[in-house]
Amino acid sequence: MSETVEVGTGPVSRDDVLAVARHGAGVRLSADAERAVAAGRAVIEKLADDVEPHYGISTGFGALATLSIPVEDRAALQLGLIRSHAAGSGAEVETEVVRAMMLLRLSTLASGRTGVHPRTAAGYAGLLDKRLTPVVLEYGSLGCSGDLAPLAHVALALIGEGEVRGPDGDRSAAADALAGAGLTPVTLAEKEGLALINGTDGMLGQLVLALADLEQLLVEADVAAAMSVEALLGTDAVFAADLQALRPHPGQAASAANLRALLADSAIMASHRDPAACTRVQDAYSLRCSPQVHGAARDTLAHAATVADRELAAVIDNPVLTTDGRVESNGNFHGAPVAYVLDFLAIAVADLASIAERRVDRHLDAHRNAGLTPFLADRPGVDSGLMIAQYTAAGIVSELKRLAAPASVDSIPSSAMQEDHVSMGWAAARKLRRAVDGLRRVIAIEILTAARALDLRAPLGPAPATGAVRAALRDVVPGPGPDRYLAPDIERTVELLSSGALRRAAETVTGPLA
């Protein structure tokens, strides 16, 4: 781990989030962030003795905001807030999600607009830098008033309670892990408990991770579609730039350009360009409309990225310090902007997987696969070929359709009706995360299927780009032959997609794909 991300008073970037969350980069606070945090804390300490009540400083929380808290009980108030809100349940949340969430909360703390003590911000930076990841459980956030339980589990580790995962993945008591890393548990003062849990960092972190995955998968979906169009003796004429320009969506244009590049100089395509050799007037929608569907998903992704970048630039806390020194209540913790695009992406993911699965099925049906064997089997009847791989894809697509149902419309009131409308953005993020994994598996099955179909078109050869993808796949997955154990073939293809190896293989011929 050589890279270190410096967190200043401005927003962290999506690349910063990926570096810290996914690649284990270290973290440090900039000097300007340290000054801003100290200045913000000075404002809170002045207000702590004010006779006028200030929410979260000298009052209770949520529905208990009208209760005044004596000075001697305020440290206990902050400690109790973290302990009581660390009420998560269910499966453990992935390390990369927790690290993303921690970095984003630290970014808000570093703005100086939350009023935390410098030692508290430094404590978060220390946890990230030492790669100590608090154990966070799946359920507990309604996506409003912040991702409360997930962020409280993180804050619990900061104060030396709860559990963490170390750099090697081992689980241990937070107090022991902090001591082993040379870190001191933080004692929270006025306002700090709220500042640690009142943000959209969990749902935003998962959005940033999903954006990175989908940017890659959308190119890989074009690769899979190109292989299918070629193997099924489709036409690339419909991808012509002038036809695509009649409907000027940028995502559609980018996808069609990828398909043209991937299919260039294909001997298989050339073999049936003569009208006398090809009687098919139009290809099925799953082939012909690939740029329209893939392009719509690209445009959806671009919108979601815009929302993510705005959110990365946000300072979310309640109450929040203004630039002129006021401490004001607000509603910026409501997760609706992020929740909506998380749900929107889940719809796009489901449709991408759906059209890919239809192309898989077309390869396997002898009535529709332009002369290939049923199920691409070596000896149909004796062998089943890829019949059940399509079942796997269909099962995933069915689940993705269920996951496309929006979480953000399902508000459930909480906190004695004080928090009477919530975003459910965390739930939207969790289901999108599962959906992205499902999409990758469906695309893997399409590539596995299309590659076998291309093999069966021999002696005709594929395009140089699709041929390079097939060759990269054949390095780890054998070609056609008698039935064999299919699950490892699917998993190896998934790994090639995750690593970007198949995209890179195509780009050795095409240059960068958009």
Automatic annotation (TrEMBL):
<keyword id="KW-0369">Histidine metabolism</keyword>
<dbReference type="InterPro" id="IPR022313">
    <property type="entry name" value="Phe/His_NH3-lyase_AS"/>
</dbReference>
<keyword id="KW-0456">Lyase</keyword>
<dbReference type="InterPro" id="IPR008948">
    <property type="entry name" value="L-Aspartase-like"/>
</dbReference>
<dbReference type="InterPro" id="IPR024083">
    <property type="entry name" value="Fumarase/histidase_N"/>
</dbReference>
<protein>
    <recommendedName>
        <fullName>Histidine ammonia-lyase</fullName>
        <ecNumber>4.3.1.3</ecNumber>
    </recommendedName>
</protein>
<comment type="similarity">
    <text>Belongs to the PAL/histidase family.</text>
</comment>
<comment type="pathway">
    <text>Amino-acid degradation; L-histidine degradation into L-glutamate; N-formimidoyl-L-glutamate from L-histidine: step 1/3.</text>
</comment>
<dbReference type="Pfam" id="PF00221">
    <property type="entry name" value="Lyase_aromatic"/>
</dbReference>
<dbReference type="InterPro" id="IPR001106">
    <property type="entry name" value="Aromatic_Lyase"/>
</dbReference>
<dbReference type="GO" id="GO:0004397">
    <property type="term" value="F:histidine ammonia-lyase activity"/>
</dbReference>
<dbReference type="InterPro" id="IPR005921">
    <property type="entry name" value="HutH"/>
</dbReference>
